Amino acid sequence: MKKEQVTRMPLMPLRGMMIFPHTVLHFDVGRVQSVAAVERAMLMDRRLFMVTQKEIDVEMPTLGDMYEAGTIAEVRQVLHLPGNNLRVLVEGVGRGFLISLQTEEGAWVAELESIPAFDMAELTPDISALIRLTKEYFENFAQSSGRISADLLRLVKQIEEPDTLVDTIASNVMNELFDKQDMLAEADHTNRLEKMCMFLAKETQMAGIEKMVQLRVKMQIDKNQKDYYLREQLKVIQEELGDEDMEQVDEMRAKMEKTPLNDEAREKVEKELDRLARTAPGTPETTVSENYIQWILDLPWGKYTKDRIALSRARRILDEDHYGMDKVKERIIEFLAVRSMRTKDDPDQSMKGSILCFVGPPGVGKTSIVKAIARAMDRKFVQMSLGGVRDEAEIFGHRRTYIGAIPGRIISGIKQAGTMNPVFLFDEIDKMGHDFRGDPASAMLEVLDSEQNNHFRDHYLEIPFDLSRVMFVTTANTVGEIPAPLLDRMEIIEVTSYTEEEKLQIAKKHLLKRQIKENGLPARSVRMNNDSFRFVIEGYTREAGVRTLTRTLASIVRKAAVEMLDTGAATVSVNKEKARKYLGPERFHRDPLGNKPAIGVVNGLAYTEVGGEMLAVECVVMPGTGKFSLTGQLGDVMKESGQAALSWVRAHSKKFGLADDFSLKNDIHIHVPEGAVPKDGPSAGVTMATALVSALTQREVRQGLAMTGEITLAGRVLPIGGVKEKLLAAFRAGIDMLCLPEDNKRDVQELPEEIRGRFDIRYVSRIRQVVEIALEEETHDGD
Asked: Which terminus has fewer CB within 10 Å in the chain: N or C?
């Protein structure tokens, strides 16, 4: 394309705006050089070359500060304003390219090459088609955007000259300065039309998208406004009626939105809230629904305490309140170590694995050591006693169809803890009932199964609740009463009875200090030495644990407090004499056994729920008709042991010098004293057999000897349990010799030397060996 000759005319730099040919623009002029350029143009041919600055904050632009393409405009009107400013109205008449910039007489003067206008004589079919296409795109844009007036649309339809068409559309449609400048700088007329078509097509598409978005926004706003209006109306109606129930519903709904419920729970709550909103206030259904929703929202959804499993800290906490119990502590440390390793990479991992079950006599610290586990892990602690529980509704809750229904004690405990991962203790799990009213032990199977309890369903809530991260621990006195399927889910940790030395250390390090503090006395105001502690332990307590010892020390501290107030003393030292004065005569005495052998009386050892006990088995033989009696409130297993002992003696009667028909001409009576106390178990077999042989042969039995063991008809002695408890019972009774089954040797080796060293232990595998050891005179050889 041919360009005109270089021309000169005053230059007006524009800031943030531009003008196209065939359009008008009015603006204010304030810069001195710009005012001088306008005045120079008015003196010449009224023409200005108007070029846009690249940066609007440049006051004295140079050639590089302005775009190359500009518009040749004709000044139509000039209005003088105060402060030597001008308001100018101009009309674009052509385009040009800036070549150079000079200053003459205080005005900017530009050298430029003008772009020739389109000659209609050069109109080709291609250009005509582009003109028609541009008009169609513009019409489509006008319909999509809705921003084009009908007058402008008619005007554009009437334009036939391509430059005028492009300039008119660009000045009314283009918003970005860059797009405008690009269109102004395009010298080729065909390219200008093509660029305008592409621009309009893109803008039409964007306008359609914007229209759809605006429509969606408008619909949402209309819905929100409608909801707001209706809610405001409802609020006013409720205020007039004095109805506050809907406010409570709104509060529950707001609380639900903030609570991270699972999908099923959220659906249930929303359904119940909608039902509550429609229910007339004051009806029983309203209270039922409110309680149900409140129970769900009060549960600690998504709340967890962070485990702090540091083994050194755990050992310190376990040692703070528990003396001895080394094997128990070692197993707990192993459990915590495994837990720490499993959650190292995944802190959210569930508590899969065996459920710990601490088994031992009362008062040995089972519950307190579980509390110590919770402290060591920095978790909340929840305790649920299962003693006497006969209904599985205690576990699973009552269904909502019942009046006064509530969730089970597991959900209640989780709510009480305030977290979803507490340490949950099921205390006395062996004391659960099992009769026609229900079987709670079977209900516990799902709770303690890590594969099922991640979607535990309480009958009241009827929604899944995750118990997989709860650490369940159980305690029991014996495992015999625990159903086998439930026992299979638990790992048994035996918490054995305390030795006298362990009781002494516990009393000295923990119990006395605790009682002094609980009774409000100054620290170390009541003092006891080791002899005093031993005197109290041996004379006033006979138990596996330390509960009676705790109560006895509490009595001493209270009486010491009275003496301190009466005498004004700051401290009281309690020796044996003062302990006897405070507590009265000793309640337990060690009989001087072993000095007087007796016929038919044998000391047996038994393991009960409260620890080890020594039972004297008595046997008498009298003329009669062959009756065999067993008394002393014995269980079936113990009676069967007596029958087995008699059968063994009859089978070996010749070896003991007995007549073949002794069982037909004599009545035999075996009695176990303390008849009010139920007794059972097979471990009294050797004791009964020895008592029978002694009574039938009239041989005396050593009274410093105690024995335990199960027997068979073949004369074998089988191992028994509760070895430590039985040895402690023997020690308390003053026994110095023991007969134990050979297979229990490994159990004895695990006991402290302080216990083993006090006895002459004889290990036996046959009844014959027991008889030889127990009777004063030698018996015949044989089994």
From this structure: N
